[in-house]
Design goal:
Blueprint lengths: L1 H22 L4 H15 L10 H21 L3 H4 L4 H25 L5 H11 L8 H4 L6 H29 L7 H36 L10 H17 L3 H16 L3 H4 L1 H26 L5 H11 L1 H10 L7 H9 L5 H13 L4 H37 L39
Helix pairs in contact: 1-2, 1-13, 2-13, 3-10, 3-11, 3-13, 3-17, 5-6, 5-8, 5-14, 5-15, 6-8, 6-18, 8-9, 8-11, 8-17, 9-10, 9-11, 10-11, 13-18, 14-15, 14-18, 15-16, 16-18, 17-18
Length: 436
């Protein structure tokens, strides 16, 4: 009970200080991770919780599902279907190249590691975190097309990485019986196909029911927030039952629900997003107190080198290749390449791998933990200054009427957590007080 009390107290403190800290580039994940780690160092017994891996896995998964769903509801699907160029390049070209580059880097940095384990490590660190990237995606000083590309990429790449991760995990543990090619194709088809099916079914049915009931005044005020949350969990649950990706189901379900729910979509998913934030907060505290504290003693210089490569070359070169010929200029390519934070999806993969066991698991899991920790620190602290630098370059080098790729119009709704006077935002739907 002491651990629960301490965790809740930490969340209360962050909530009270979130506005000024966020303005200074200190994200919730960074604050909660550091405080969790600090508590574990000063008073190890306080957060010394023997948590079942499957429980931790489910908490992190549901947090990611709720955040993916609520983010997806805010995307204008009508506009997006005409602007799939950059997101599709990042997903269909950038993601596979990132995995291959990550596997190659692991083979070089850890020469004794089996290639199956190197490929597994690469798939675990390939997806980016939609929640950790929201500080950039929500900043209206960044061109809408750039923000939209980052938002859609981070919303879908973790779901697309799931089948590759599961296949890599089975190969590393020598669990496959048929050919690897057939296994990859079968897993991809099942994960993506059933994920899409579950997401569309839950999102369309939930959206239609919500719209019909809401227009007739059938939904009591307190249940308008609960229905979308239930739809998100339903999409995830159905996908799990069918053998599909719950992450794909959540994101696709959010797209469908948001399209059918209409303009109120950003108002009725506040509870879903808040619930996701709360579960994510618990995950980050546990990450700092348990995973990070346990992994650091095993972190060698090779682990830190791989983490640095994963956050830079392994991510940025594939992005540059994916966006070649797209009209994106070099600063934009570098900006998109840098802001690929690793977070909840990688931790979920690490928990699954820890539960099932993996050869050279100590090195693989330590590399994941260190990479995620460095990502939280570096991407959080650099978001505000790099957005400022990029915005100055964009304003100085993009005259009115320019045909540059970044100037293509795109619609990406504002998030409710955007504070007035912060990140170039206004006070639409949030705290009405003027910024200090």
């Amino acid at each position: 009970m002491l651990a629960v009390t301490v965790v809740l107290a930490i969340i209360v403190v962050w909530s009270a200080l979130s506005r000024p800290l966020d303005r200074r580039g200190i994200t919730s994940a960074l604050f909660l991770m550091v405080v969790g780690f600090g508590v574990s160092v000063v008073a190890p017994a306080v957060l010394d919780v023997s948590l079942e891996t499957i429980v931790a896995e489910r908490i992190a998964e549901i947090a990611l599902v709720l955040l993916l769903f609520s983010d997806a509801t805010r995307i204008d699907l009508g506009v997006l279907r005409h602007q799939l160029g950059w997101p599709s390049r990042l997903l269909l070209i950038g993601l596979p190249l990132t995995i291959l580059a990550g596997a190659g880097a692991a083979a070089l940095v850890f020469p004794t590691m089996a290639f199956a384990s190197a490929f597994l490590l690469a798939t675990m660190l390939a997806p980016t975190d939609a929640a950790l990237g929201q500080k950039v995606v929500a900043d209206t000083r960044v061109p809408p097309r750039v923000r939209q590309a980052l938002d859609v990429e981070s919303g879908l790449n973790d779901g697309l990485a799931v089948p590759l991760f599961l296949v890599a995990l089975s190969i590393a543990n020598a669990e496959f019986e048929s050919g690897v090619t057939g296994m990859v194709a079968g897993s991809m088809a099942a994960q993506i196909g059933w994920g899409l099916t579950a997401g569309l079914a839950a999102g369309i049915l939930g959206g239609l029911l919500f719209h019909a009931a809401d227009t007739r005044g059938w939904i009591a005020r307190e249940w308008r927030q609960i229905l979308p949350l239930a739809v998100a969990l339903l999409a995830y649950s159905v996908a799990q039952l069918l053998g599909g990706s719950g992450f794909i189901a959540a994101f696709v379900g959010g797209l469908a629900f948001g399209r059918l729910a209409g303009p109120v979509r950003s108002k009725v998913t506040v509870l879903s997003e808040a619930a996701g934030d709360l579960l994510a907060a618990v995950t980050w505290i546990a990450f700092g107190a348990l995973a990070l504290a346990l992994a650091l003693p095993y972190a060698t210089w090779q682990v830190f080198v791989y983490a640095a490569l994963s956050l830079t070359i392994v991510r940025m070169i594939p992005v540059a290749i994916a966006l070649a010929g797209s009209g994106a200029r070099r600063p934009t390519v570098a900006f998109i390449g840098w802001f690929g934070p690793r977070g909840l999806a990688s931790l979920v993969f690490a928990l699954i791998a820890a539960e099932r066991g993996v050869p050279e698991g100590e090195t693989v899991l330590t590399a994941v933990v260190v990479t995620v920790a460095l990502s939280i620190i570096l991407h959080g602290l650099t978001s505000a200054p790099l957005v400022e630098v990029y915005q100055r370059w964009y304003a100085a080098n993009t005259p009115t009427g320019s045909a540059a790729g970044e100037t293509v119009p795109a619609t990406l709704p504002r998030r409710r957590r955007q504070f007035p006077g912060v990140n170039g935002g206004d006070d639409h739907g949030v705290d009405p007080r003027p910024a200090p």
